[in-house]
Design goal:
single chain; alpha/beta
Length: about 350
């Protein structure tokens, strides 16, 4: 059942959404029928790269679409703007909350300061922030994942698939979140075959420099690693990862995707035969689950973590060459069981 506080603001300011948000990012709003129920549901504000990144943001959108289809309510998804500040993000979230959207989710750790500020002003609205666990409030859910566990399995896959005993890691931005991907991957490689060399590189020091949104930077980095004999390259770089995959395909080596099952991404279809697997985290499920918890009148709050045990991180098996490799699958399954049992402790830095 929808909460009374949301129903009370139902229908208010529907026509003003585009105007209210025009100063802080593009807007896409949809109603699930010609006659809306009169209350508003899930709204998401995208991270750097926006919708169409074939990765992190697109996964959040998939969760929004599932909620819209099931709950038959109005949703909103808002694009970021170049060079925006925390104040811009806060304005965006506040505008959504004021119009009655609930829950309101900031997609990406960069939204943490804005979520903290706005959640205090709208205590009857549930907020979510993906990939940050520092915001502590009664109406905030910190949607986080054990990315290092999926990355460990990606390391196992890379170590078992390399012929040159050289693999690569490309991180979008040199920050603790992406260090988790690197740490897990390197550990998985070394535990599987200590003889394999891992080449690791970050594209930028800050997100503002384009580390998550520059396929050209990803392509250049991957080409450099491939020149050094890397024949499997794993990218944790958002939209920049598309360039890594493109470089792998051009040089007939393996790429490992991230966040979404990139083998299935339409925009990457021409490269899919070079995508061995993807280290996935189910942002879609986290987004949907928060929306459902609000719909059920029992909003999630605090740290909500997805890991291998919950099935919210893992490796995609869409590529038949990956799925049908019995020896590789056996090694991955053995590692997965040891991580879940605690026998293997995966490093996060």
């Amino acid at each position: 059942m929808r909460r009374v506080s949301r129903i009370a603001v139902a229908g208010a300011a529907t026509a003003s959404l585009a105007l209210a948000l025009s100063a802080c990012g593009g807007t896409s709003t949809e109603s699930s029928s010609s006659e809306p129920k009169g209350d508003k549901g899930l709204a998401i504000a995208y991270d750097v790269g926006g919708k169409g990144d074939q990765s992190f943001n697109d996964a959040a959108y998939a969760g929004l679409e599932q909620a819209k289809s099931e709950f038959k309510y109005e949703t909103a998804d808002i694009e970021p703007t170049e060079g925006e500040t925390d104040a811009d993000k806060a304005q965006r979230l506040a505008s959504l909350a004021k119009q009655g959207y609930n829950p309101v989710i900031g997609v990406g750790y960069a939204y943490a300061p804005a979520v903290k500020e706005v959640a205090a002003k709208y205590p009857d609205t549930t907020f979510g922030v993906v990939d940050d666990s520092q915001v502590q409030a009664d109406n905030v859910a910190d949607l986080v994942f054990s990315e290092e566990e999926a990355s460990y399995l990606a390391g196992v896959a890379a170590a078992k698939s390399t012929k040159n005993n050289v693999v690569g890691f490309v991180g979008g931005v040199d920050i603790p979140l992406i260090h988790k991907f690197q740490a897990g991957f390197e550990q998985g490689v070394k535990d599987t075959n200590p003889k394999v060399k891992v080449l690791s590189q970050y594209l930028t020091q800050t997100a503002e420099e384009g580390g998550f949104s520059s396929p050209d930077k990803g392509k250049t980095a991957a080409e450099g690693q491939i020149e050094k004999k890397a024949d499997v390259v794993y990218a944790a770089a958002g939209l920049s990862g598309q360039g890594v995959i493109e470089a792998a395909a051009a040089n007939k080596v393996w790429a490992i995707g991230v966040d979404s099952d990139q083998y299935k991404q339409e925009a990457l279809a021409k490269y899919k035969d070079s995508i061995l697997t993807s280290a996935t985290k189910d942002v879609a499920k986290a987004v949907y689950n928060l929306a459902k918890s609000v719909e059920d009148g029992k909003p999630e709050t605090g740290i909500v973590r997805g890991d291998l045990k919950s099935g919210e991180v893992g490796l995609a098996d869409s590529n038949p060459k990956f799925a049908d490799d019995a020896e590789l699958q056996e090694a991955i399954e053995a590692a997965k069981e040891k991580i879940i049992s605690g026998e293997i402790k995966v490093k996060s830095s």
